[in-house]
Structures are given as structure tokens and as C-alpha cells.
Design goal:
Layout (H helix, E strand, L loop, with lengths): L12 H5 L13 E5 L7 H10 L1 E7 L5 H18 L4 E5 L5 E2 L5 E2 L5 E2 L5 E3 L4 E5 L9 E3 L14 E6 L9 E9 L4 E6 L3 E3 L3 E6 L18 H11 L6 E4 L5 H13 L6 E6 L2 H5 L1 H7 L2 E4 L1 H7 L2 H18 L3 E3 L14 H13 L3 E4 L1 H4 L4 H18 L2 H16 L49 H9 L4 H16 L1
Parallel strand pairs: 1-2, 1-19, 2-3, 3-15, 8-9, 15-16, 16-17, 17-18, 18-19
Antiparallel strand pairs: 4-14, 5-6, 7-13, 8-12, 10-11, 10-14, 11-12
Helix pairs in contact: 2-3, 2-12, 5-7, 10-12, 13-14
Amino acid sequence: MKSKTHFLTDLNLQSILEPADPQDKNYCATKVVGTIGPACQAVDKQVAMLEAGMSAARFDLTWGPIEYHRRSLDNLQTAMKKTRRLCAIMMDTLGREVMIRRPFRIEADGWPNQAGQEISVKMGQTLTLTTRDVECSDTVLPVTYAKFAGMMETGDTLYVGRYLVSGADSASLYLEVVEVVDEHDVVCVAKNEALLDGLLTVFHVERSSDELLNLQNDLPLLSDYDKECIISLAQDYEIDFISLSYTRSVDDVIEARAFLDAVGLGNTKIMAKLESRQSLLNFKGILNEADGIIISRGNLGLDCLPEKMALVQKTLIQSCNLVGKPVLITRVVDTMAVSPRPTRAEATDVANAVLDGVDGILLGQETLRGYFPIESVQTLVSIARQAEKVFDHQYHFDHLLDTAYEVDEGHALPGGSPEEASPISSQGDLSDLDPEGTSGSGARRAPRRIPSNESFSSLSLAIKAMTRFGPSSYGNLQVRQRCVRAL
């Protein structure tokens, strides 16, 4: 796929430097998703976040009892009535998360807290990760996955970090495996200093830089707790989206869809969360089956080389744009967990994502436990709105339509045919994008929001997707259609 260049319609720097109007209440096309937690569970906080521009609320089942999430949902319903604003509900699953087993206490509001159990780790210190039923200490970290040691090899890199960790936290620890003692114990050495606190998760970094060599854990896609919460909460609340954590392949999306259909949630949309390199290698099938994509930049950034991460993000966003499916990113204003203002790099990152074509931005720890949840939403909306003002919709439309046309005519691959062509020139499953919805197993599922008796080529599918850019695009679309017919 050819690269897309941003063109500003107005190069007058003076006009760009004019302060944004604080009273500007124009529609913001980029959606903001806030994670509900102790920092914003109260009704007044959620009212303020809705008024600031939050369009969806995320409830992460990774941590917290079901009654806590139920109370948060009740408060959201009250906040929506007070503001007369609608807010989508997104459930984020626990899935295949591996965690450090530590004691916790339940706070007065029902939130489980592990504060006050900090673990100080020095660079070069030796630690043991074990599946044995032992207490957590400064040198022994018990993990929740029984087959953990069987996945390890000497030289592997492990990342231990706080749940929804941010750049503002010191709870990020990189470990190198020095010995796999037996089926229970893995001895590691710390590669940096860290102060571990809160809920700790473990991520096994891919050992190869160009292929997939790691053994994957066999934890279920949806835990029993995930299923229990979804079934129970769906009886009282309308769940709009499921954020499917650790999606690895098209089979995961199919499995999740079968579960949702079985419990009467056929209208709930599945947002596949890309968190590992395996999901990138299977991206074609995932994109075909899912209703949308969430680029989990935290874990994905651990599994990809740093110099490749920006290219991965841009490729995923453009691929979703091409087939008209929403794409969200995470980890944008980390420092706003403790600061009322983002860094220059964070503000630029958000604006560039909007200019790349991202449809939504997901706030994690910034709203879950940060000191400035309302300001975080306001900041994202303000940055996104300013980027949208200079976004060249006409060029973006022309670029995607040209790409779709080349794919339809078989120009994307040398000597290819329309059936073999792809809008993405890459390796693995990415090189084989089929917008018509054929899964890796060969089964065809009708694209959502498209009648099942219709079959669209990549060009016509892109045409349908691009009409959302407004009247100017529609006029250009009619001209382009006439040209296509003439050919």
C-alpha cells in the first residue's frame, strides 16, 4: 500500500497559532472512551466527563468485583439522565491475562486495593517467578498461570508492570530469564530498577525479532468471570461493545461471537484488541470478522521493535479505514494521570493519530485512577477537534479510493488478480486482506450492516465506507463511479 501524506488545506501559520475558542462546541468526530474506576465512579465525575465529550465508558473486568461494576453502571445511567447525553457501554474482558498473585483489601467503595505492598527491585537483582502457592515477596513472585515455566527459555525477556501502567509510573520491570529450574520455578535477573505496586501483570516478550517462536498460554479467550459478568450485567444494561482482550486469530472472534449470540447479545459489537505480534500475523482474518479494532499500544509496543511501532500503527489504521471499520488506540496521555497537562510528545501523538485516520481514543489509567480524569477527556477532545479542522478530507477520500481501485484491478501485487490483490503489502496474513469476509477457515460471514445476499469487491466496499466523509466526497464519488463504468 502506498504511503499517505498529510496535506494541510491552509499553510497560514498565524491562523494555526490562534488560540482555540474555549466556547467552541463543534462536533468532535474522534470518539473518546473513558475507563471507569475509583477516580471517576461518582455520578458528578461521570457527568463532567460526559459534558467534556466522553462518548463511551469502558468497564474493565480484569479487576474489580461484579458489584463494583454494577454500581459504576448505575452511576453512568444517572449521569446520562442528568446530562441528557448518550454514552456507549464497553466491556473489556480479562481473557488470557497472567498476573502476580498478591493479597488485597476491599475499600469502602468496593474497589480491591493492593496499595502499601510495594516491592522494590534493584538492577541486577535475582527474582524467582513461581507457580507454587507461596506468599509474594521481594524475591519471589507467584504467577497465576500453572504452566508458566513450560513457556520459558533461557534468555527470554519478561515484562512485569502495573495494571494499566503508564509512563508516569515506576512500576515497570524488565526481567531476563537465566534459568528454568523445573516445572514451577523460573529464575530471572532484573534489567532495571522498579518500584512494583498495585495489580501486577506479566507479559512474555516475543523472543524472535522476525517470526513467532514463543509458546502461547492456553488460557481461555473468555474466563468464567468474564462470562458471568457479561451475562449478569446484560440483563440490566445494554452492552454496546465487547473489547476482546488478547485476540490472537479469527477463531477468537468467531468464538466470542458464538458466545454472545448464545446469550442473546447478537447486537453487541466485538472490538478485537491487538496486543501481541501473533495478532498482527493474523490481522486479515481478525479484521474480516471483528466489528472494529483496538490497537493496544502498551503490550503491542513490547512485542514489536520500537522502530517498527509507528509503521505498524499507521498500517493498521489505514487498513481499517479502507474497509470502513472503526479503529481505536490506547496509551495516549499517560502523564495526565499525575499532571493536568500532557507533554508535547503526547499532544503531538494524539494529533498525528487523528490525522492518520483513527476513529477513537481509549483512556485507561488516566481516568481509572488518575488525578485528572475530566481534564484528560477535555484535552483529548480539544486536540482532536483542532486536528480535525485541518484534516484534508478530500485528499484522504481520494487516497483511500485510489488504493481500493488499485486493489480491485489487481495492481497492488505484481501480476496479481483482483482476487489475489491486497491493500497491504506485508508479510504473513497481512498480505492477504479479503474485504468480503472470508475467514481463515474458509467460512464466509456477511459483513455487518451489509445485506447478507450482497457481495462487494474491495472497491465497492471502500466506496460505501467513504461516503461517511460528507457531501464533498459524495460529489467526487459520483465522478469516480462514472470513470469506473467507462473503463
